[in-house]
């Protein structure tokens, strides 16, 4: 696997095709990224303290970006994405690490026909606070957001998920689903879904749930010989695994699947 | 030779006694038909044997080859060889059939089943049950039709190879062709591994295909009549009235629960809550 360290290059025009980047610095870092073709990027964040990402997806371009937070110390993410006319952004964020995270992410669908798929998957064993906004600023735009989290002992999860459609952004759609799975009543998970709609000719929806594994599902799976912890592992992996398949690269998918499985097994066997 | 012995079993749900002293013995290679009017304890018996925590065993015993089943957890009972094909199989989004079944098979093996062997066996079983080839990659029972869920229960049964299998109205929701497929799969498996079977059904057609060696009628929490396949035929043609008259018993009338009326809600799960 070829890894490209972008630590020394802050202004990057993303090349077409697939690439992998490693972020490995504890100094504050700002990345100015521009996508003018069709590209996909796996951003492996090994060390970071304050990471700013500013990305513009130019007209008729498309970018798929998967940010994988692997840090061992607290990190703050500040992300802004501008998606221009007839272009798309597929943005995913995954984390199974144990350090705290503050993440602010804003996607602006600036041009007519722009679209964004925004996903996150969090195995939460520490304090994970996120605020994600997808705003439609032009007609015919589409924003779909999905956030999945499994909150373990000592974990605290907070997600502010906002879909916004401004006046004039007619024929736009904004949908969001956020789900947090907890294992007992002491664990803290808060999801605040918001829809800020200022236009009539639009579609918008939100679905949110915070809760424990359904007792009947637990018994059903146990009745096939799985222990309580094995059931927890299986369902947790099911919650988080789709993020591993976000980028169509089999080698990367295998690596992320193994990492998610090992982290989940480690966490659920405690 | 395995033997499941149930002796004088009393079971309650929320302080209401449902089973009032059931005794039954099932050996390997036997097929027992369990019949009776709705709401008289058939499903309760099967769930209590499997260990569903909702069903409280107040007295009596269940042993499998002399080992106390009641002291085992649900998963331990499964690994000991019990299997319940459920009347209403659960949907588990996010968990694929293949991941689930592989984990369930590995849970009863000392070394994990090699991936190639698992795929081969799963493909054959899915084909035997005439299900769609993509079953392995679909989430467990999610979006399945009623018939697909029932067939998937038999897929699991064939893969897990229990020594004692219980089928709770596995024939309901199946069309004529699917009924034949399911019944022949159960019979084939029984011939292959010699498991004992306890099957609940209301229909003679299913029992004709299964060919039970024993038949029992459960009324008001007790087994009131026992026999063989002829008993199944008699009930199919004459119903249960002759039993009520002959044994001077009154069946429990199934309670009809009123469905709660919804005035509408947001898209959030009704089970979910903000913490």
TrEMBL record, chain A:
GO biological process: iron-sulfur cluster assembly
Domain SUF system FeS cluster assembly SufBD core: 49-238
SUPFAM superfamilies: Stabilizer of iron transporter SufD
InterPro entries in alphabetical order: Fe-S_cluster_assembly_SufBD (IPR055346), SUF_FeS_clus_asmbl_SufBD_core (IPR000825), SUF_FeS_clus_asmbl_SufBD_sf (IPR037284)
Recorded coiled-coil stretches: none
PANTHER family: PROTEIN ABCI7, CHLOROPLASTIC
Protein name per the record: Uncharacterized protein family (UPF0051)
Species of the source: Anaerorhabdus furcosa
From TrEMBL, chain B:
SUPFAM superfamilies named in the record: P-loop containing nucleoside triphosphate hydrolases
Ranges where the ABC transporter domain occurs: 4-245
GO molecular function, one term: ATP binding
Gene3D superfamilies: P-loop containing nucleotide triphosphate hydrolases
Short name of any one Pfam family annotated for the protein: ABC_tran
Keyword Nucleotide-binding appears in the UniProt entry: yes
Alphabetically ordered keywords of this record: ATP-binding, Nucleotide-binding
Similarity annotation: Belongs to the ABC transporter superfamily. Ycf16 family.
Record-given protein name: Fe-S cluster assembly ATP-binding protein
Organism field: Anaerorhabdus furcosa
């Amino acid at each position: 696997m070829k890894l490209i360290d972008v630590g020394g290059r802050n202004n990057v025009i993303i090349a077409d095709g697939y690439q992998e980047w490693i972020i490995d610095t504890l100094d504050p870092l700002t990345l100015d990224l521009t996508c003018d073709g069709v590209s996909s990027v796996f951003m492996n964040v090994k060390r970071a303290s304050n990471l700013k990402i500013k990305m513009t997806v130019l007209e008729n371009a498309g970018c798929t970006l998967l940010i994988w937070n692997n840090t061992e110390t607290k990190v703050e993410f500040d992300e802004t994405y501008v998606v221009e006319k007839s272009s798309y952004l597929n943005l995913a964020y995954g984390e199974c690490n144990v350090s705290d995270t503050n993440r602010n992410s804003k996607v602006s669908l600036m041009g007519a026909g722009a679209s964004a798929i925004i996903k996150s998957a969090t195995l939460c064993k520490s304090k994970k606070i996120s605020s994600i906004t997808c705003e439609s600023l032009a007609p015919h735009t589409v924003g779909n957001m999905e956030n999945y989290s499994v909150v373990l002992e000592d974990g605290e999860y907070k997600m502010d998920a906002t879909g916004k459609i401004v006046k004039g952004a007619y024929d736009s759609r904004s949908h969001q689903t956020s789900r947090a799975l907890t294992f007992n009543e002491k664990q803290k998970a808060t999801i605040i879904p918001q829809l800020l709609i200022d236009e009539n000719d639009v579609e918008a929806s939100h679905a949110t749930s915070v809760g424990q594994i359904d007792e009947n599902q637990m018994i059903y799976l146990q009745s096939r010989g799985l222990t309580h912890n094995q059931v927890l592992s299986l369902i947790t992996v099911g919650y988080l695994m789709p993020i591993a398949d976000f980028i169509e690269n089999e080698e990367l998918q295998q690596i992320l699947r193994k990492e998610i499985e090992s982290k989940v097994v480690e966490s659920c066997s405690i | 030779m395995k033997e499941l012995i149930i002796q004088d079993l009393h079971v309650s749900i929320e302080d209401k006694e449902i089973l009032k002293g059931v005794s039954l013995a099932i050996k390997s290679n036997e097929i027992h038909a369990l019949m009776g009017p709705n709401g008289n304890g058939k499903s309760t018996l099967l769930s209590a044997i499997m260990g569903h925590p909702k069903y409280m065993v107040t007295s009596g015993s269940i042993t499998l080859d002399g080992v106390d089943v009641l002291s085992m957890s649900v998963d331990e009972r499964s690994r000991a060889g019990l299997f319940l094909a459920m009347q209403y199989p659960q949907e588990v989004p996010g968990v694929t059939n293949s991941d689930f079944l592989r984990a369930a098979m590995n849970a009863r093996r000392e070394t994990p089943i090699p991936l190639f062997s698992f795929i081969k066996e799963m493909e054959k079983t899915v084909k035997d049950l005439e299900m769609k080839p993509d079953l392995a990659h679909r989430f467990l029972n999610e979006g399945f039709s009623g018939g697909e869920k029932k067939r998937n229960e038999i897929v699991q049964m064939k893969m897990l190879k229990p020594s004692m299998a219980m089928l709770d109205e596995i024939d309901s929701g199946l069309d004529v062709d699917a009924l034949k497929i399911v019944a022949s799969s159960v019979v084939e498996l029984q011939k292959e591994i010699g498991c004992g079977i306890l099957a609940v059904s209301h229909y003679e057609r299913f029992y004709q295909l299964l060919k039970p060696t024993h038949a029992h009628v459960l009324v008001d929490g007790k087994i009131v009549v026992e026999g063989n396949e002829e008993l199944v035929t008699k009930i199919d043609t004459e119903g249960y009235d002759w039993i009520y008259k002959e044994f001077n018993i009154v069946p429990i009338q199934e309670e009809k629960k009123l469905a709660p009326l919804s005035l509408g809600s947001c898209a959030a799960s009704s089970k979910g809550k903000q913490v």
